[in-house]
């Protein structure tokens, strides 16, 4: 019996593919998801999911749901529109800064659009669970999140409105939390394997969530905005935000007294280059120096590259000193100006505290207010004016902190993040349950996120080829894409094949569009990226179709019966 719902005729599908890349698109996923008609930009960082995109998004959500259910997660849906008070209680109304979308209701009360939901889940459990017998509990939702990202770019990879699976675990003991965390870790491994994503689990910093242990799931891809080190010899892998390796700091920068440029009255490019320890032909990014005691950015406004030639013009005849990290404690706006509100201050310091480093990855370590080692720091927020800072530069080949082998450094997309929050939110909201002995016990929590919409883009990044998207079957909008390449005879056969495949339980897209040339249909089929393409073409009269593997390009002529048997 044909299952009509499984067969989608393209003549009735709302889809408009594009031959040209969108002008502002830099990454493959952005270009291809738009060109293939999966998503359309609504406004900066805000996206419409069109029918095929919706199918892919739903497939990712389904995998996530199944694996969350498998570890005992219970699905709920909390509001996205939230009152300010809980976020004031946790301190995040302030802490999130410009990242938060804030709004007022008609009475003037403050609201926000949820960037993540620790506060509200804590309150939900406080309302629902009163005894240790009610725990442990794992709650999750798949929901839209809002973050006013400084640089929403790369299409749905970094949206200002995006889809996230977030879950939260509630336990009474540390062992319980460790167990809930381990369950999530395993569920995430299964999810990303099923999605067909190549990924690494790396140590991470817990950032705005607070808490202790935290790991990220990173999908290696050039388009990624995260950098991680990976040891080829042991299991050590870490986001550079969280690396604990220490290598020798470059002389001078960020250390002790400010170095003074010992030059003649008019420094030349050569003397400056020598001072900076770079070739005179070098291009430096965001070079900041002090000229007569004033911090100045040398370069063309809006241009992040500074060439030594332009630099020379700014310097004569003045006293030039290297800017140190300490200088920026008084000028956090300069740090933010270069890095963005939530960005890696460490990256800025690479250029600021140590302008001699023209490449590689660097970050700042130092003592924060509690005397702990701080990473991903923002001057003024995370450390005091008089605190000493180290600039640590990690380059490929630096020793692994575990085994000493040379590290690899790669770019990746953060697709998931798991945290052991501990009692931070339970303390803030006084979340207790009655223990076995009748006394209240403070609950301990974990929080776990997956970027569901980002995973779609990450998959596109990792699996596309020069012809277009190329989905793994589990995630593809259909199993088979049947192309009617010709006239009535071909269309008839294509629809019949489609129906038979549908009846066999496959999800089928049939390109039965009239007045569209076979060439355009083939190009669209490659662009759309369904894993198997079946063509009813030249030999349709004999009941013969061509079955083609989208990824390998392997093709074979088969009778309709053979094709249906092969594919189902
Ligand atoms: P990033 O470092 O990329 O900004 P994050 O660390 O701020 O992400 P988390 O708070 O850990 O993100 O959120 C959980 C997950 O939500 C992330 O691992 C990521 O997959 C996804 N995510 C976060 N921000 C965005 C965004 N702006 N667009 C799409 N997905 C996002
Ligand atoms: Mg972020
Ligand atoms: Mg992150
Ligand atoms: Mg994260």
TrEMBL record:
Instruction: Mention one GO biological process in which this protein takes part, according to its record.
Output: prolyl-tRNA aminoacylation
The record, for Gene3D superfamilies, names: Anticodon-binding domain, Bira Bifunctional Protein, Domain 2, YbaK/aminoacyl-tRNA synthetase-associated domain
Q: What is the predominant subcellular site recorded for this chain?
A: cytoplasm
Catalyzed reaction equations? tRNA(Pro) + L-proline + ATP = L-prolyl-tRNA(Pro) + AMP + diphosphate
Q: Where is it found, in Gene Ontology cellular component terms?
A: cytosol
Q: Which UniProt keywords apply?
A: Aminoacyl-tRNA synthetase, ATP-binding, Cytoplasm, Ligase, Nucleotide-binding, Protein biosynthesis
KW Ligase (keyword) present: yes
Asked if the Swiss-Prot or TrEMBL record annotates the protein with the keyword Methyltransferase, the reply is no
Q: Which domain of life is it from?
A: Bacteria
Q: Look at the named UniProt entry and state the broad enzyme category this protein falls under.
A: ligase
What InterPro entries does the annotation carry? aa-tRNA-synt_IIb (IPR002314), aa-tRNA-synth_II (IPR006195), aa-tRNA-synth_II/BPL/LPL (IPR045864), Anticodon-bd (IPR004154), Anticodon-bd_dom_sf (IPR036621), Pro-tRNA-ligase_IIa (IPR002316), Pro-tRNA-synth_IIa_bac-type (IPR004500), Pro-tRNA-Synthase_IIa_type1 (IPR023717)
Q: Which GO terms describe its molecular function?
A: aminoacyl-tRNA deacylase activity; ATP binding; proline-tRNA ligase activity
Localization in the cell: Cytoplasm
Q: Where is the Aminoacyl-transfer RNA synthetases class-II family profile domain?
A: 53-472
Question: Which EC number(s) are documented for this chain?
Answer: 6.1.1.15
Fetch the Pfam families from UniProt.
Answer: HGTP_anticodon, tRNA-synt_2b, tRNA_edit
Q: Assembly and interactions? A: Homodimer.
Q: What information about domains appears in the record's comments? A: Consists of three domains: the N-terminal catalytic domain, the editing domain and the C-terminal anticodon-binding domain.
Entry similarity comment: Belongs to the class-II aminoacyl-tRNA synthetase family. ProS type 1 subfamily.
The protein's role, per its UniProt record: Catalyzes the attachment of proline to tRNA(Pro) in a two-step reaction: proline is first activated by ATP to form Pro-AMP and then transferred to the acceptor end of tRNA(Pro). As ProRS can inadvertently accommodate and process non-cognate amino acids such as alanine and cysteine, to avoid such errors it has two additional distinct editing activities against alanine. One activity is designated as 'pretransfer' editing and involves the tRNA(Pro)-independent hydrolysis of activated Ala-AMP.
Q: What is this protein called?
A: Proline--tRNA ligase
This protein's species is Streptomyces chattanoogensis
């Amino acid at each position: 019996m044909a299952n009509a719902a499984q067969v989608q005729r393209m003549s009735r599908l709302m889809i408009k593919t594009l031959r040209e890349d969108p002008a502002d698109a830099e990454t493959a996923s952005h270009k291809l998801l738009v060109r293939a008609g999966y998503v359309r930009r609504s406004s900066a960082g805000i996206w419409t999911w069109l029918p095929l995109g919706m199918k892919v998004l739903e497939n990712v959500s389904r995998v996530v749901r199944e694996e969350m259910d498998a570890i005992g997660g219970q699905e709920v849906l909390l509001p996205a529109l939230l009152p300010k008070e809980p976020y004031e209680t946790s301190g995040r109304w302030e802490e999130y800064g410009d990242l938060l979308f804030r709004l007022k209701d008609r009475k003037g009360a403050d609201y926000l659009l949820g960037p993540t939901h620790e506060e509200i889940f804590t309150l939900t459990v406080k309302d629902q669970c009163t005894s240790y017998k009610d725990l442990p509990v794992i709650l999750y939702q798949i929901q839209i999140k809002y973050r006013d990202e400084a640089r929403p770019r790369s299409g749905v990879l970094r949206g200002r409105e995006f889809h996230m699976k977030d879950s939260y675990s509630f336990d009474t003991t540390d062992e319980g939390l460790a167990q809930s965390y381990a369950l999530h870790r395993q569920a995430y491994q299964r999810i990303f394997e099923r999605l067909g994503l190549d990924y690494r689990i790396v140590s991470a910093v817990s950032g705005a969530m607070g808490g202790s242990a935290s790991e990220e799931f990173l999908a290696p891809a050039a388009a990624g905005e995260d950098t991680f080190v990976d040891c080829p010899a042991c299991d050590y892998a870490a986001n550079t935000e969280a690396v604990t390796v220490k290598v020798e700091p470059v002389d001078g920068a960020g250390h002790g007294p400010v170095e003074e440029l010992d030059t003649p009255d008019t420094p030349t490019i050569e003397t400056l280059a020598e001072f900076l320890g770079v070739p005179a032909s070098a291009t430096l990014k965001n070079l900041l120096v002090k000229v007569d005691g004033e911090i100045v950015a040398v370069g063309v406004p809006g241009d992040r590259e500074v060439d030594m030639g332009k630099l020379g013009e700014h310097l004569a005849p003045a006293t030039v000193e290297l800017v140190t990290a300490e200088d920026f404690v008084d000028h956090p706006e300069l740090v933010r100006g270069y890095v963005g509100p939530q960005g890696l201050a460490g990256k800025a310091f690479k250029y600021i505290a140590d302008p001699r480093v023209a490449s590689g990855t660097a970050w700042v370590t130092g003592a924060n207010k509690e005397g702990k080692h701080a990473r991903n720091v923002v001057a003024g927020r995370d450390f005091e004016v008089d605190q000493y800072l180290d600039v640590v530069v990690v380059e490929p080949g630096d020793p692994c902190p575990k085994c000493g082998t040379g590290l690899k450094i790669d770019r990746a997309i953060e697709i998931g993040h798991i945290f052991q929050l501990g009692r931070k939110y339970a303390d803030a909201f006084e979340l207790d349950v009655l223990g076995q002995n009748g006394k209240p016990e403070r609950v301990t929590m974990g929080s776990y996120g997956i970027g569901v919409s980002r995973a779609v883009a990450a998959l596109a990044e990792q699996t596309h080829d020069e012809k277009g998207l190329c989905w793994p079957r589990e995630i593809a909008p259909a199993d088979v894409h049947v192309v009617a390449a010709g006239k009535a005879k071909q269309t008839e056969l294509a629809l019949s094949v489609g129906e038979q495949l549908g009846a066999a339980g496959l999800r089928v897209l049939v390109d039965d569009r009239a007045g569209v040339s076979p060439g355009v249909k083939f190009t669209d089929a490659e662009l759309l990226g369904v894993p198997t393409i079946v063509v009813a073409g030249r030999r349709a009269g004999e009941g013969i179709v061509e079955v083609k593997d989208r990824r390998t390009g392997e093709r074979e002529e088969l009778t309709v019966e053979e094709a249906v048997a092969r594919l189902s």
